[in-house]
Amino acid sequence: MESESDLMMKFLEAPEYQNGPNCPLLSKDENLLCDPSIVHIAMTIDPQYLRGSIAAVHSVIKHTSCPENVFFHFIASDSSSVNANQLTRIVKSAFPFLSFKVYVFKEDLVKNLISSSIRQALDNPLNYARSYLADILEPCIKRVIYLDSDTIVVDDIQKLWRIRLSGTRTIGAPEYCHADFAKYFTSEFWSDAELTRVLEGKKACYFNTGVMVMDLERWREGEYTRKIERWMRIQKERRIYELGSLPPFLLVFGGEVEGIDHRWNQHGLGGDNLVNTCRSLHPGPVSLLHWSGKGKPWVRLDADTPCPVDYLWAPYDLYQFQQQPKPEVPGFSAHSW
Q: What is the pTM of this model?
């Protein structure tokens, strides 16, 4: 396992990105965390995905119009080989001017609720931290954008932040209603009328939980963490799904998600969950690239077996000795978003 000093040596310092002329001024006499002009972004952070997290942060602050108004909330495991203070110093070494805080997620909250899934990486307790953001973050934080560590934002995050969650909707995400929703659950689930009643009268569509806009006030009021935990307990007893932390979200929020434009989650760029395959971009504009699936761009680049889309990730990589060629990717240009 790499030490903190080893990890710090690997990251270059990012440029200092400053606010444009039209950005709201931050209050000087109020807690920055509670300032209404702040865009809150939550991500998990651990040694294995640290390089991805650093690149994701770099992409956000590079492309936003108001980088000084973005606050990052990093969630670290209490069992990590690199503790929260060390992670704080590592992030600070790459982003001296970044506003952020590292929180500790107690894995015991969820360890006994996790069932094995189709890929071991999906069983990591930190994958379930997104279900506890309303409890982990300060009560004054009413809204947050959750991003996976294998994402790159190539648009102004302010646009995603401003998306309205209509009615009583608690989360917003790109939905994919053409996907076969049934395949995410086992016959054990579909054969039980009591379980399937949760979906009655709803047009439930698949959505990817790696990019979400979350209303934390509504989440707290609706006690959605407890509702997700309930489905995890049923899973332990009945084996109603196979895929990690996603299915409980589908059961709790399916049919009640604020649909966001697909440009905000071009997911699946890491191949599927079992095979590391190359995929091309979907047609249309792109605001966020997501290497969900087994393959990660930094791993493939280092192994000299990159997919074409991995070269879109490389410019945001602050890994120190990384000098990758950046050929053109068909169908994508700097003006396509």
A: 0.91
